[in-house]
Amino acid sequence: EDKVVQSPLSLVVHEGDTVTLNCSYEVTNFRSLLWYKQEKKAPTFLFMLTSSGIEKKSGRLSSILDKKELFSILNITATQTGDSAIYLCAVLRGSQGNLIFGKGTKLSVKP
Amino acid sequence: NAGVTQTPKFQVLKTGQSMTLQCAQDMNHNSMYWYRQDPGMGLRLIYYSASEGTTDKGEVPNGYNVSRLNKREFSLRLESAAPSQTSVYFCASSYLLSGRATDTQYFGPGTRLTVL
Predict the structure, then answer these.
(1) Which residues of A touch B31 (CB under 8 A)?
(2) Buried b vs exposed e over A69-107: b needs ≥16 C-beta within 10 Å?
(3) Which of A105, A110, A111, A79 minimizes the C-alpha distance to A10?
């Protein structure tokens, strides 16, 4: 059975800290791995990773995929209170675009 | 350009009532999805439509039906609501090119449904 596992499930840090969120997967017919940020409403897209070893960056956020070891990490440097959210990892599988999600990591950044 | 829209935003039903959740996208995407999100469970796929005229079951289809009305619209129907269907429902869309998903899925704002 396909599965995506995120860790930790929750995390509390202080502003300025650096955090690493983990996502491991066991999925048949893997296409790509996606990271989303969810605040109060709909998930918003952060990154799509298809190839191993290529880091994607957007400001203080970065992510990388290891297709051999079947995991990805999402790094956030110099965290701010606005980074507080649930971060979702999802794997795109098959040819019909189905996403399977992990349970998410709830990040709380304290001032 | 509104992206993905959903109606209603909130709904309270009694057990056994029926209702339809509406979803529309204006991004010319060919593929659309319905998810539910429960605390501690992440998002789970209910049904999807890879293209106009086709629908397929996802991970948790029981108790739901869908209709792909046209390229823009994809509705989710609860025929006889149950308390276990209390959840937040998200619609999403993406563009499939030659059978491969080439783009991320864009999500609507969600519908918070409570079944008493």
Answers:
(1) 96-97
(2) ebbbbbebeebeeebebbbbbbbbbbebbbbbbbbbbbb
(3) A105
Residues on chain A touching B40 (C-beta within 8 angstroms): 103
Shortest CA distance from B9: residue in chain A: A41
The mean pLDDT of chain A is 92
Distance CA A69, CA B25 (A): 37
pLDDT at A77: 97
pLDDT surpassing 90 at residue B112: yes
- For an interface test with A, give the residue of B34, B104, B107 to mutate (most A CBs within 10 A): B104
Q: Do B48 and A96 touch (CB under 8 A)?
A: yes
